[in-house]
Amino acid sequence: MSTGSIKSVTLNEFFQQHTTFNQLNTLPLDTIICGDCEEVLRTFPDNCIDLIVTSPPYADQRKKTYGGIHPDLYVDWFLPRSKEFLRVLKPEGTFVLNIKERVVDGERHTFVLELILELRKQGWLWTEEFIWSKKNCYPGKWPNRFRDSWERCLQFNKTKKFKMFQKAVMVPIGGWSNTRLKNLNQTDLTRDESKTKSGFGKKIANWVGREMVYPTNVLNIATECGHKNHSAAFPVGLPEWFIKLFTAKDDVVLDPFMGSGSTAVAAKKNTRYFIGIDTQPEYCKLAKERVESPTEY
Amino acid sequence: MSTGSIKSVTLNEFFQQHTTFNQLNTLPLDTIICGDCEEVLRTFPDNCIDLIVTSPPYADQRKKTYGGIHPDLYVDWFLPRSKEFLRVLKPEGTFVLNIKERVVDGERHTFVLELILELRKQGWLWTEEFIWSKKNCYPGKWPNRFRDSWERCLQFNKTKKFKMFQKAVMVPIGGWSNTRLKNLNQTDLTRDESKTKSGFGKKIANWVGREMVYPTNVLNIATECGHKNHSAAFPVGLPEWFIKLFTAKDDVVLDPFMGSGSTAVAAKKNTRYFIGIDTQPEYCKLAKERVESPTEY
DNA sequence: AGCTCTTATGAATCATTGA
DNA sequence: GTCAATGATTCATAAGAGC
Questions:
Q1: Do B293 and B268 contact (CB within 8 A), yes or no?
Q2: Helix (H, G, I), strand (E, B), or coil: what is residue B245?
Q3: Cβ contact (<8 Å) for A160 and B144?
Q4: Which residues pair with B274 in a beta bridge?
Q5: Distance from CA of residue A199 to its chain's centroid?
Q6: Taking a C-beta distance cutoff of 8 angstroms, is the pair B199, A223 a contact?
Q7: Contact call for residues A181 and A211 (beta carbons, < 8 A)
Q8: What is the largest CA-CA distance in chain A?
Q9: Which residue has the higher pLDDT, B14 or A99?
Q10: Intra-chain end-to-end CA distance of chain A, in Å
Q11: Of the candidates A239, A252, A256, which has an alpha carbon nearest to the alpha carbon of residue A92?
Q12: Is A204 left (phi over 0), alpha (psi -120 to 50) or beta?
């Protein structure tokens, strides 16, 4: 697949282009911008982004680490940025936040719970929580906990009428159908009502000839480790699944905390435009290389 | 296995026995008590329970349904009960809460998040969140969401030094791969997003040759269906896993919202004492039958 | 008894239609 | 208008039947 030319600009360069950008009323598509997303996004018009998928710097007690925001300060740090996300997102767009609280002093920290509550106060709808279950994490053991093998993928929306292309993420039907659907009896042919009066009923005959079914809200995706240069905590398959589900071809995908650029790679791979923002020049450089590298596709 | 004699008492009968119980300083072991857990537990001494595992009535908008607590009132309904849980639990004991918020008006309701925050204010430590991924959840697809196939199992503790028997829940590494390969069907092959087995590269080498490995904090357990008389939403395997992990033989397991008695069955099956409480006489009767039935073991 | 094959069943949500 | 009924939608597990 041809990846075209990728732009990568510093914040200064971006602000120089920005006058033009406003005059032409065009977005800096397929561009990597080096800067703080809050500052960068303030120059964007309202309602211009179809999907925001991001895995922000995780809360970290060690203040020196790149991107390490102290858990106690995380919500206050996040909210001014999510305010810009809310403004630039189209009404029918979606914001997917991949996040997981870490253990602080033997307890799960509560900043993610508090963040969800605050985001709702900010105007977001908390539509769904998907679970990213990491299939291939190696065994681990601590005195009082096991390997943490899952992360939250929180879905937020501006309105209840958001875009969703469910067929794009359908999966092959399970092996059960081969045997079950061979010979059908009378109850299989009619709708069999649930005894719990839930309104649920099943009609086995509906499944005959079906090859694809809808997935659930648990995503089984392997972590991407041992990759070439970068240590991408965010495997391309994760943003890719949400890009397929929530955007159409040529839609605009934003990752305000781009890191090594998995979202950008996933967007290009699926013929969507991307805008990636990161404060660290080395990550911007790495992301540009990855998006332009044919080995990613 | 011999199940012994199971007691089942009404609240009145329980209060008659209760004088004796206090005098003898013994707990009503292997007893099913019909009443509200808050009222019942107030008669219990402090620090007498090793493990509380429960799946309380879920929040429900339909007020008529049994156990249906309105989501907006759920936290206020729960807190006086969890206050008693905190009092009766031993310092080294654990409280496992299986719960999941439902969709209200297109959004995930926030009462579970609020409950976690309030439980911490009440004095609980929020140690961990396990995910129960339901392998065989029934179908579902709506205009803007997929099937909800997971629930939270929240671990709370009184102190950081809680009992944990990690070896009791180890999984055979060979067995895992053997059964996995045996059942390998089209679904497994095509749904597996992992393109490379690169994750099994470095540190996995430490585990090669070992017979048993520790599990993660994602539990893959099927819902219990097609069972005889009862419809246990809570499969025995779920409380059983936590009973093995957090208690030793002859420890005392409490389920304050017993329902059809899966926790009681799991406790007896693993030679732990149980105390089950439920407000509904029909559930107390059903639970007694299940615990005494040899077909459950 | 022991094996395979068949069949029943389970914590739901939303738009639409009918009363 | 409000409220209740209806349709859509998987797969693992265990009971039961057949051999």
A1: no
A2: helix
A3: yes
A4: B253
A5: 33
A6: yes
A7: no
A8: 72
A9: A99
A10: 7
A11: A252
A12: alpha
Task: Specify the DSSP class assigned to residue A159.
Answer: S
- Is the alpha carbon torsion for A78, A84, A87, A88 positive or negative? negative
**Predicted model pTM:** 0.92
Q: What is the pLDDT of residues B252-263, one digit of tens each?
A: 999 999 999 999
User: B113, A117: Cβ pair inside 8 Å?
Assistant: yes
Residue among B137, B193, B199 minimizing CB distance to A220: B193
Cα gap A37→A254, rounded to integer Å: 10
Contact assessment for residue A160 and residue B106, using Cβ atoms and an 8 Å cutoff = yes
User: Which two tokens mark A186?
Assistant: 């009378």
Q: How many beta-carbon pairs below 8 A join chains A and B?
A: 163
Determine the average pLDDT of the residues in A218-244.
Answer: 81
DSSP class of B260 = T
Query: Which parts of chain B have pLDDT scores under 70?
Result: 1-4, 15-25, 61-68, 173-210, 227-232
For A290, how many CA atoms within 13 A lie in the half-sphere containing its CB?
A: 28
User: Is B117's CB less than 7 Å from nucleic acid strand D?
Assistant: no
Q: Check whether A195 has a pLDDT greater than 80.
A: no
Give, as ranges, the nucleotides of chain D with any atom within 7 Å of a protein CB.
Answer: 5-16
Show the tokens assigned to A176: 């059960």
Half-sphere exposure of B176 (CA within 13 A, CB side): 14
CA–CA gap between residue B165 and residue B247 (Å, rounded): 7
Taking an 8 Å cut-off on Cβ atoms, the answer to whether A147 and B216 are in contact is yes
Gap between the Cα atoms of B252 and B48, Å rounded: 8
Strand C contact at CB of residue B233, distance < 7 A? yes
Q: What is the DSSP letter of B203?
A: G
E-only strand ranges, chain A: 7-10, 31-34, 49-54, 89-99, 103-104, 107-108, 125-134, 141-142, 145-146, 150-157, 171-172, 192-193, 201-202, 212-213, 218-221, 252-255, 273-278
Taking a C-beta distance cutoff of 8 angstroms, is the pair A240, B193 a contact?
no
**Cβ B218–A133 below 8 Å, yes or no?**
yes
Residue pair A253/A225 in contact (Cβ under 8 Å)? The answer is: no
Q: What are the beta bridge partners of residue A31? A: A7, A275
What secondary structure does DSSP assign to B81-148, as a single string? HHHHHHHHEEEEEEEEEEE---EETTEE-SHHHHHHHHHHHHT-EEEEEEEEEETTPPP-EETTEEB-
**Whole-Å CA distances, B227 to A268, B117, B236, B295:** 49, 37, 12, 11
**pLDDT attached to residue A115:** 98
Smallest CA-to-CA distance from B103 within B133, B155, B146 is with B146
| Chain C footprint bases within 7 A of protein beta carbons | 6-15
| DSSP for B175-201, written as a single string | HHHHHHHHT--HHHHHH------TTSS
Tokens 């360069």 belong to A13
For residue B223, what is the enclosing H or E element? Answer: none
